[in-house]
Request: fold
Amino acid sequence: MSSLAPHNDDAHATTTAESAHDQATALYFSATWCGPCRTFGPIVERVATALGDRVGLVKLDVDAAPELAIRYGVRSVPTLVVLRRGEVAARHTGSISEGALRRLLDAAL
Reply:
């Protein structure tokens, strides 16, 4: 499962995020008005694509999916929350390098 297009509502995003219990899922919370999100988003997409079936990616706009952002305690963007078997396995707030993101995801998988 990989969903690179942003989800535009809480219900659809929740269904997508929770449908992958067999696979780790990276929830990428961002916003259109967020400058760092514009640079970190492509990094997240490259790393998720490189990891292939090991991790699914769900992009979420905090303004379009506020309930899910609240549910996962997102207070700043960009924030990445990695779920493994339905539990939070890792999280990071702010932009990081591609190598650091790869290490974060490898450790969570």
Summary: The CA atoms of residues 4 and 59 lie 6 Å apart. The chain has one domain: 3-108.
